[in-house]
């Protein structure tokens, strides 16, 4: 359980702020623009002192939903166990996964004090319908944290399906954690732990 909590917190450091052989010229630059817009929007919301905490979280949630493909993330994170779930369980899991990741993201990003100038985008790699947007976030100690957004072009938009922080994949990390719980316990046990974590994330708000 301690590993579960540690990894959940670790991988939402992104909130301190989200194969073809030829690059599609028409789409070149679009993934980076999309990520850039979302990050700037979130930072703008954070820096709006007129907003109340709940209103700020609501607006951040809306911004994040536009760029993160939570269903794709959830499916990839569940890995081989995804196909064993019923349609109802899949819907439940995606909802819990989305709430958990969003809440953790918002909690961490609210502690991020830098403005848009503190985020740099060195490059992007586009191959067919997939792209990687490389970014660097300046930490409080002046050392850049590398955050790479892996996006998929689907339904005429680019959505993040994985985030790699300092070379380590969020999806792979979640998959390892979920797989361990599923093998030792069950889907019901995983859901119970996710609900417990959500309750812990919500506790500060109620307090």
Task: Walk me through this protein's architecture.
The protein is α+β, with helices and mostly antiparallel strands. It has seven helices and five strands, in the order H-H-H-H-H-E-E-E-E-E-H-H. It has helices at residues 2-11, 30-46, 53-67, 70-78, 87-109, 170-184, 187-206, and strands at 119-127, 130-138, 144-154, 157-165, 168-169. The protein has a five-stranded antiparallel β-sheet with strand order 1-2-3-4-5. Strand 3 (144-154) and strand 4 (157-165) form a beta hairpin. Helix 2 runs antiparallel to helix 3, helix 4 crosses helix 5 (87-109) and helix 5 packs parallel to helix 7. The longest helix has 23 residues, at 87-109. The model is unreliable at 16-28 (pLDDT under 50).
Number of DSSP strands?
5
Distance N to C terminus: 24 Å
User: How much strand content do the residues show?
Assistant: 15-25%
Major sheet size, sense and barrel closure? 5 strands, antiparallel
Helix content: 40-55%
| Protein structure class | alpha+beta
Q: How many helical stretches?
A: 7
Order of helices and strands: HHHHHEEEEEHH
Q: Give the overall pLDDT as a whole number.
A: 81
Order of strands, widest sheet: 1-2-3-4-5
Q: What is the C-alpha radius of gyration, as a whole number of Å? A: 17 Å
Shape: globular
Low-pLDDT runs of 5+ residues are 16-28
